[in-house]
Every structure is written in C-alpha cells, then in structure tokens.
Amino acid sequence: MINQLSINIGSALTQLVEFIGGLGLLLKQAWENIKSRPFYFGLLIEQIYHIGVRSFPLVFATAFSTGMVMALQFGLGLQRFGGKYYVPKIVALSLLRELGPVFAGLMVAGRVGAGITAEVGSMAVTQQIDAIRALGTSPIKRIVIPRVLACVIVLPLLTTFADTVGIFSSVIIGVSELGLDPMFFLQKVVTTVQLLDFMSGIFKSMFFGLFIGLVGCYYGMKTTGGTQGVGIATTKSVVMSSLFVVVGDFFLTKFFWVIERWSS
Amino acid sequence: MVVIEVKDFTKSFGQKTIHRGVNLTVNKGECVGLIGGSGSGKSVILRSLIGLEKPNSGQVLIHGTDIVPLKEDQLTDVRKKVAYVFQGGALFDSMTVEENLAYPLKEHTKLNLQDIKKKITETLKMFGLQGSEKLMPASLSGGMQKRVGLARAIIMGPEVVLYDEPTAGLDPFNTKKIQETILQLKKSGVTSILVTHDMPTAFAVCDRMVLLLNGKIVAQGTTEELQKDHSGIMQTFITGEEA
Fold first, then answer.
1. Which end of chain B has the smaller Cβ count within 10 Å, N or C?
2. Which uninterrupted H or E stretch holds B232?
3. CA–CA min distance A124, chain B (Å)
4. How many CB atoms lie within 10 A of CB A50?
C-alpha cells in the first residue's frame, strides 16, 4: 500500500514537472516566434471575437449576480452594526481588486480554455497540426500566438466590464434593499477607489489570460488518443486553468501588495 | 542522382525500439514502395523525411543536406520541396476546399488572388474535383478528402512527394484516380515514396519496393524482379503469409 502510494505521488510529481516544463517551453517558443514575420493579424482578430465578444453575456450574468449578492450580504451584515453606509466602499474594492478579475478569469477558463483545448486537440488528432508543419508553416504562429494574445488582450477588457456591471448591480440592491441614495452610492465608489485598485485587478487578469491561453494550447497540442483523448485533455485544461486563477490570485495579490507598499 | 538518403536510422518510442539502423536511398524520378507490417514504423520514416519526427541517431539527407539537426524554421525550405500526403487528407476543417488549396500558395508565393484562384481551378480539374471549391471538408467523401489532400500537397509543384497510405479505405474508382495521379506526377519527374498495404497499387506505380521488418530493411527489389520471383521473404509478405 505504501509502495503504491509512493508510486502515485512519484507519478503525479513527474506529471507536474512535465506540465511546468512543457508550459515554459511553449511560452519560450511563442516569445521567439512572435518576434519574426509573418504575424497573422487576421487570426488574432478572429480569436478576439471568439474569445472576447462571445464571453460578454456570460461575464455579464456572473458579474451582475455577484454585485447584487455582495451588496446584499454586506448590507445585511453591516446593517446590524449601523454600517450599511460602508457597503459601496467594500463592494467596489472587493469587485475591482478580487472578484472582477477572478470571476472573469474563471468564466473564461471554463468557456474559452475548454474551447481552445477541444479545438486544438481535434486538430492534433486529425493530423491538422502536422499538416500546418508539413506545409512549411508554424503551428506556434498560426495556433498558439493568436489564441494566447487574444486571451491577454481580452481578459482585462472583460474584467473592466465585470467591474462596471458588478458595481451597477450593487447600486440596484443598495437602493432597493438597503435604502441608500444612488448618487451617494456612486460618490462613495468614486472617492474610495484609486487607480491602483483598478490596475491591480487588470494586471491580474492579464496574467490569468496568459495562463489560460497557454494551458489551453499546451493540452491541445499534446492531445493523443482520438476523441477520448480530446475529452481528457479538455478536462485537464479546465482544471489546471481554474486552479491557476484561484491559486495564482493569492500570489499575484501578494505581489501587488508588496509593490503598493514599496511605492507608497 | 540520389535525392533521398537515410543512413543508420534508429528510432525508439520509450522503451520500444522501432528502427535499428535503416538505410535507404531514392534516386531522382524514382517511386519507391515502402512496405511492411502494421506498426513496423513505415510512417515514422516517412514523417522523418520532412522533419515531423526526429531519429534518435542517424542521418536523413535530402539533396545531400542532413535535415535531422535543422530547427523547425530551418525546415521550411525542405518542406516547400518535399510534399507529404497524409493518410486521412488532414484537411483544415475550418476552411473550404478552395481555402485549403490556397493555403500553401498564400504562405509561400507572391501570386495574386486571381492567379491563386486560377491555379486552384486547374488543380481541382486535374483531380476531377471541379465545382467543389466552396465545400467544407466535412461534406466530402473519404475519397474526395484524400484527393483534395493530395491536390493541396502538390499544388506548389514539389520535387518529392511522400504518400502515406493514399489508397487505404478507398473504393476502386478513387483508388484508380489516385494511381493515375501518382503515375502522372512520376512522369513529370517527381521523386516519391509510397507507404502502403495496397499491393496492386504498389505494383502499378512503384519502380522498386523495400520491405521493413523488425526495424530493418530486410529485402528490396524492382517491381519486375518481384513479379518474376516467387520465393523469398518479400514474396512471403506480399502473398500474405507473414506480416
């Protein structure tokens, strides 16, 4: 039993090292390829549309309900201590610094990460990736770079959208459930929030975008074993991307916290 | 004149050794049939000839240049001259037939859209596929997909064509069409290697056949020699007595 356990741990560690190494290698290849021609601008625009524009409804629904829940929970909790006037400040800071980027990241990891892996994985098992190479072109340039760049560009935009929607939905609850004046609510948000609060969320979302795009492409390009392999790769991709968003959020928060302390 | 030369080619996947020092030469304009049992590594050799796989040791010389140490971007010139016909066609399923054929032309030539369109129409006509320009690969039959894949591979006018089981799973009509295309290309001076299990096609188009067994080339001979000789390991394989 102990033997089996050590084998399982060893195997999991090997897979982790392989994953980190493979991801690093893919990032290096993408960085090297992005500096040389040709650059497929049309493919980038296409991916921005698929990844970004089509994610807006999902991000809207998530941010809208999150903003309302936050306002309601803080409102009910703080009302007991006469602190309901702090709701705008707390909700705005929570959304901009944490919930906006994290929820947008998780939604994109689920919708886009899975989509990228399934699409690229299907191309891999039907030899389309080999065909790109055999025809003298680069799958890194045609497949990886447009998708990763699109994620890095789109996620900050989605986060900004989520922040805005979340704040406005919290205003609705603030007014209808807590009896706060809408102008008071918005004024408190504007006076509380600083540029750094907004930017830390935006930078986080860029890292999330980079990782979601890379993980999606990595598992897609590595897919073997036909349609079953595509399913397995897609699941792994979503799990790893979501984990990174949640776990990476802590380290990025700490990182920006150190920077803020250093700059103030 | 030797166009392709494989020297002491060794390849392993994990613990399993597939090739143990394969040596092979193909002369200009020659069509060589590479035959052997399933899993003998025929396709791996074929893929190595355009750098899709790397051997563990040995050399792969194309026009005298060893392509094994070349990086991915350095292989572009080789891949413009050496075309690979995939078993299933490997068509880009997000593109129409026309876009699939236009792909290498847009990437590697300075032809304008009108000339690209003209070239595509001519090529499709040659393969009996006229009128299929706007179709998506998913709406084509298996035979048509293979023919479009072949058309895409040769549209740049390659010097060498590598066929990976081009007739597998095809009906007699499509098989005949593929055979005719291979013979036509051969007539125009194209050098080729054909990996196949389809012996009638191999006898119809190949000048020479080599048998890959247990990681090595164990027998070879011209098509005429094989048709006359009714003994030996090659005959045993061809007649289906050993794989």
1. N
2. none
3. 10
4. 18
Provide the ipTM: 0.91
Interface residue B47 vs chain A (CB under 8 A): yes
Flag if B107 and A133 touch (Cβ within 8 Å): no
Q: What are phi and psi of B212, to 5 degrees?
A: -100, 120
Which residue's entry shows tokens 């936050």? A70
Q: Any idea which residue has 């860029």 for tokens? A: A206
Cα separation, B19 vs B41, in Å, equals 7
Does A135 reach chain B within 8 Å, measured CB to CB? yes
Q: What's phi and psi for A226, nearest 5 deg?
A: 65, -155
Q: How many CA atoms lie within 13 A of A129 on its CB side?
A: 20
Using one digit for the tens of pLDDT, what is the confidence trace for B167-220?
888 888 888 988 998 999 999 999 999 999 888 899 999 999 998 888 888 888
Counting as low any pLDDT under 70, the low residues of chain B are 230, 241-243
Strands (E), chain B: 2-13, 16-27, 31-36, 57-62, 65-66, 82-85, 160-164, 191-195, 208-213, 216-222
Find, among B197, B209, B218, the residue nearest to B19 by Cα.
B218
**CB spacing of B52 vs A136 below 8 angstroms:** no
Per residue in A22-44, pLDDT tens?
999 999 999 999 988 888 999 99
Distance CA A91, CA A164 (A): 12
**pLDDT tens digit sequence for A215-256:** 999 999 999 988 899 999 999 999 999 999 999 999 999 988
Q: Are B232 and B219 in contact (CB under 8 A)?
A: yes
State whether residue A17 is helix, strand or coil.
Answer: helix
Q: Which of B103, B159, B160, B163 to mutate to test the interface with A (most CBs of A within 10 A)?
A: B103
